[in-house]
Design brief:
By secondary structure, the protein is α/β, with parallel strands linked by helices. Helix content is 40%, strand content 10%. It is globular, with a radius of gyration of 25 Å. Bound molecules: 4-O-methyl-beta-D-glucopyranuronic acid (GCW).
Amino acid sequence: MISLLSVFTATAEDGSKLWLRYQTTHTAKVTGQECKAAEILRAHYDGAQVCLRIDDAMPQDSYRIEGSHDDIIISASTQHGLLYGAFALLRNEDGYSAPYYDLRILNHWDNLDGSIERGYAGESIFWNDRLEIDHNKIEAYAMANASIGINGTVLNNVNASPKMLTAVYINKVKEIADILRPWGIRVYISVNFGSPKALGELDTADPLNRQVRRWWKKKADEIYKAIPDFGGFLVKANSEGQPGPFDYNRTHADGANMLADALKPHGGIVMWRSFVYGAKHKGEDRVMQAVSEFKPHDGEFRDNVILQSKNGPLDFQPREPYAPIFDQMKQTQQMAELQITQEYLGHSQQLVFLAPMWEEFFTYVSPEKLKGIAGVANIGLDTNWCGHHFAQANWYAFGRLAWNPRLTSKEIADEWLTQTFVDKQLIAKQQIPESHKHRAIKENHSQLVQTRKIGFNEAYAALLDMMLRSREACVDYMMPIGLHHIFKFDHHYGPEPDGFKAHYPLEWCPVYYHQADSAGVGFDRTSRGSGATLQYPEPYCTLYDNPATCPEEYLLWFHHLPWDYKMKSGRTLIDELDFRYQRGVNEVIDFIATWQQAKPYIDAQRWQEVNDRLTTQLIDAREWQVVCTKYFGGFAR
Ligand code: GCW
């Protein structure tokens, strides 16, 4: 009898392998195309033979897997398609698959000194003061991305150093590009709009100035000479102090188009961010400013410009309504920017699976509206890459959703959990017959019931459930019923509902966002208030404008309501707030119990590390609850 404990409890693991915990088999004879896919399958596929075939007629990056376990054919039009097929085969998938988006891009907010803005998993894997590139690390990074279909990466922070465009750094970008290329990953960089001036080469960065235009063209030529398949630029302009076209009384379109013209001959693109506030429409409700600023320029952008907007109109809060800019820009190509790193969702201390949030976004913004997806990475030099073992699931989920935005959170969580925490391959290798397997699980289950209460299947189901509930739990214990941005300045970890204007600018100020007073709480964004509801098309405009029809999860985002306002539950608003804060805390307690019960099935190191963080998460959740219920209760009671 094979002990299931030894099957499921792998030897010490530190998370460094991510979801790629393949056995090394060397059993498969792999014929056809010699490429990365062949190497991977030769090392890790446990069937007898695989043929890799190029079929020019197939769409870019798509693949088809046919045949039986021991005699597989993978077809694709390129080696990258074959690679995606190889990883799919290792996930036990078959059939045809094609990516929904051509642009599946990670954004690294990595600074050239190695620090990472909003990074919670150590220093940058790309940059350090020594300018040393760790080839093995980058190769492992490439493989992980390729395994989930990510095909582009922006190597530096959107708050970009002009130095990125100097010869030294362009050379480094080339070095990284050369490592990533065989894995189907293109490099992009963030550029500082003021670079020609900041580098002391010109005395202006005016996008309509001829010398400036020539400077960017020459820069693009220089980059493409080193990196022929370079992807293009990502730009944060006239936002949070970054330079931009406004500095010269020009428009976003003037700025973006100048860069687009420089890249166009080489096939490059410009991803121009719409995350702007306080520059032109100072004083206007911050969530409305992107539309105010960009809508007048709809239709003015070149065809190689893509407007990149965050999923919500504010800033990556645990819950926001979708950003109406996705509806408003009708003649401009758009991308969504999701934040994988958990800036506002507990950093790498809290277990929060983000796929449900992104799934929610796609129910409002139809995937067809977008040209591509960008995700702000949560990757650093930490051994387990992401700080929290479960934060790896967010990187995974991002890639899978960029490949197929119709996948459900549950499907993704299931895939990830199986690959990351369960040793199915080991079971298969030991060839336990299906019937035997069930018996083994059952016998073991009854044994474990006495000591650990639940069997593997139940533990697995509970872990899956924990992942799927974790985002809603976070919303509950941080900011339920549409509350937002009541974080501590400036690290955004922990509550500060009394944070007020004297401390920092209005647009970052908790009291500005919740507007609590003795009369009630919430931000009036209705047609009678700031008018933000008017930026939404029907049916949302009408739905959101009326508290009776506004979904309760967005209620205080759009409405200022009295403390005794009657909620659907029958509770008053203040009681409902208390109820939800408590519910959030209860969920974390439940996650801890789930993790305890799953202990027999999880390797020791990862179990302990996750357990430590769950303990922190509970302390944090309680802090949110205590601070916020006390603060709001002070007005209400
Ligand atoms: O979410 C905010 C962050 C900043 C970030 C900015 C942005 C890179 O607090 O750290 O800067 O958004 O998205 O540009």
